[in-house]
Amino acid sequence: MAYENTCGKCHTPSLMGRKGDPGELPLVSSLSEFYRNFIGPRGFVPPLAGPVFISRWGSKTAAQLIARFEETVPFFPPEGMDDETTVNITAYVLQVNGARAGTRPLTRTTDVVVSSITR
Are 44 and 16 in contact (CB under 8 A)? Predict the structure, then answer.
């Protein structure tokens, strides 16, 4: 899955981020230098699911979330990451947070407010 091979390395497969606790999977030491540098010495990476994520992104649009994901890609361009993959990962993140498929496809310009489509 695209998420696990890219964002999931830092934000974890559960989307719950990192608190910097020992033993968080995948182990930071198992990641490439690019991912280790992105995570940094504190080991903190914000969650992409749950109340903390919704409090941060709930008032923003899906397009803004996609743009944020695209901003991080230049730091460590994951293999196979392109615009379509970024949109698909955003759709996955929204789905995990309770969003259901809408009547229009998600695009880089979708202006729906995140909290209006999540639980």
Answer: no
